[in-house]
């Protein structure tokens, strides 16, 4: 079985990356006793060379060579079909100005638009379970106040084209290793440290269980 863990954030050792690592462990543990090989691919989008959809419409060209595929020749050319044919995908992204990062957005434009048929059935080659992990500075109350149903459009598109993603939101993250070194009038370093100590372990557990859930759903689909 093939799983993809896709980090849409730039940092390889912080909140998003740590949560994705836990989710990956959840998949691995859940599938440790199955006979098949289990490969969990870790993708750091910031290491790849690619841009968003260029609106060439080759993916919709009737009878065209690249019908239902993205023809752009960059680091996503070979990766997108592999992810589209995988058994489960977990995306992670920090929230930047109320949105997922530009890199994950660009990836999803090409991942989703290549299988979208205007007014028709999805061209997805496979319906695998998916999850989104969002990390952000705001508290849960702040999220509800400022962002509310912000991610619904994207998640509904994913649901229509492939499957409804699970959504794990991780609030009030610890952003710097030493708050005294950075200019900041918004966050209380002590409260941030407390939150990290008391709540981040719960977030990590949630991510681990999310990984298990993706693995379980995938097994069910493959029955
Ligand atoms: C460019 C930039 C923009 C950000 N914008 C927001 C924002 O709009 N809302 C928010 O809650 N946090 C915002 N943050 C904070 C990050 O989303 C948060 O610290 C996240 O957990 C970082 O993930 P990481 O630790 O994996 O890098 C922003 C951070 C950066 C660097």
Automatic annotation (TrEMBL):
<keyword id="KW-0285">Flavoprotein</keyword>
<dbReference type="GO" id="GO:0016491">
    <property type="term" value="F:oxidoreductase activity"/>
</dbReference>
<dbReference type="InterPro" id="IPR051796">
    <property type="entry name" value="ISF_SsuE-like"/>
</dbReference>
<dbReference type="InterPro" id="IPR005025">
    <property type="entry name" value="FMN_Rdtase-like_dom"/>
</dbReference>
<comment type="similarity">
    <text>Belongs to the SsuE family. Isf subfamily.</text>
</comment>
<keyword id="KW-0288">FMN</keyword>
<protein>
    <submittedName>
        <fullName>NADPH-dependent FMN reductase</fullName>
    </submittedName>
</protein>
<dbReference type="InterPro" id="IPR029039">
    <property type="entry name" value="Flavoprotein-like_sf"/>
</dbReference>
<dbReference type="Pfam" id="PF03358">
    <property type="entry name" value="FMN_red"/>
</dbReference>
<feature type="domain" description="NADPH-dependent FMN reductase-like">
    <location>
        <begin position="1"/>
        <end position="133"/>
    </location>
</feature>
């Amino acid at each position: 079985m093939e799983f993809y863990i896709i980090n849409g954030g730039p940092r390889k050792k912080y909140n998003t990356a740590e949560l994705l690592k836990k989710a990956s462990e959840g998949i691995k543990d859940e599938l440790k006793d199955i006979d098949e090989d289990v490969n969990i691919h870790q993708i750091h989008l910031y290491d790849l060379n690619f841009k968003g959809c260029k609106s060439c419409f080759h993916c919709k060209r009737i009878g065209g060579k690249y019908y239902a595929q993205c023809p752009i020749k960059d680091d996503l050319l070979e990766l997108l079909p592999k992810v589209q044919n995988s058994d489960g995908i977990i995306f992670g992204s920090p929230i930047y100005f109320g949105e997922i990062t530009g890199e994950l957005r660009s990836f999803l434009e090409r991942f989703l638009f290549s299988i979208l048929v205007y007014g028709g059935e999805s061209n997805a080659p496979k319906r695998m379970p998916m999850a989104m992990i969002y990390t952000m500075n705001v508290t849960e109350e702040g999220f509800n106040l400022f962002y509310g149903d912000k991610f619904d459009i994207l998640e509904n598109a994913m649901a229509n084209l492939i499957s409804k993603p699970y959504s794990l939101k991780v609030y009030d993250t610890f952003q710097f290793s030493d708050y005294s070194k950075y200019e900041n009038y918004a966050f209380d370093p002590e409260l941030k440290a407390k939150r990290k100590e008391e709540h981040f372990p719960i977030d990590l557990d949630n991510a681990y269980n999310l990984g298990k859930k993706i693995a379980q759903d995938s097994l069910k689909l493959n029955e």
